[in-house]
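ok so heres the complex, two chains, lmk if somethin looks off
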Amino acid sequence: MTLWITVLAAGALAYGLKLGGYLVPERVLEVPWIDRVVPLLTVALLSSLIITQGFLADGVPTLDARAAGVGVAVVLLVLRAPFLVVVALAAVTAALVRLWT
Amino acid sequence: MTAGPTAYPLPWWRTPAARQGLAVGLVGLYGVSAGALGVAAGLSVWQTVLTSLLIFSGGSQFALYGVLGSGGGAAAAVATSTLLGLRNGFYGLELSRVLRPGPLVRPLTAHLTIDESTAVALAQDTREQARVGFFTTGVTLFVVWQGTTLLGALAGEAMGDPRAYGLDAAAAAAFVALVWPRLVGRGPGGRTGPLAAAVLAMVLTLVSAPFVPTGVEVLVGATAALVVGLPRRGGREDDPGPPLPVTRDATPGRHGGPHDGHVAEELP
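and the predicted structre for the whole thing:
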């Protein structure tokens, strides 16, 4: 039940933000710092999520098979591999590391 | 709906904007990873599909799955997901001037407002072409995204223990891939700001994680955006100036850019 509410709440808020962009008078948001902070907010959140997903276990900094997957992902991104290839090979890498250790 | 009468000699579906939209819309294939990760995070197949239908924004969905999957609370998951969706609101602000959607199409236009559709729309020269590009991208991506989410969710469910297949690492890799183009791109804000925000966010998250409830460390990390972005840096680009014409925001990079850098690179 909680999960359904979570999904519906996230969905409603996501749509509300999208629609709000079309309805809010532009002048309301013409404050200089918003243009700087919003792109950085996206970067900061995505970067934090790399840590929670790849380098934390129960709230404790941890280096395990996931780190190997992230390493492979970075190499593939440098090589300009497409999104799905990056994600799939990162998963395969972590799975193989777990198999061998 | 997708295009009104056009000044172009070509029918709308043969215009460059439509072809771009179709090509970019196909990146929606990575909905497979959204579906698999949603189920791995503990959502049911239908809850996962519902996130794709309702949120329809990759970053926000992955954030929701990520926080829930690592044992975070519902509030932290929704907050992280919503903060990541903030940029779509700013895309809407720009697109409302470029597309000028009427009240009837506005609700649909809003839902299709994501990184990819914004990038294609803003890359066009005329309003008609911007509309064609926006809707072709948005509708294609929406359809592909829903279908591949369902496939990924069913596959994820069939696979069982997500860790055995490295799906937890896939989630981490997805965030790396989503942030990558924002770090290596040549946005109007320069590169040092995003890099500094990324590094600071990661450090804050690592350091705060042992002391806050699971999921909240992401929000602690998000404050890096304020630390880096709030102090006024020199330079003209920070000058808000008087209201400017539409072309001022002709690059989506202004508010963060397409979340898949390969999109922009694939544009003909």
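quick notes: The CA atoms of residues 42 and 85 of chain B lie 22 Å apart. thats all i got rn
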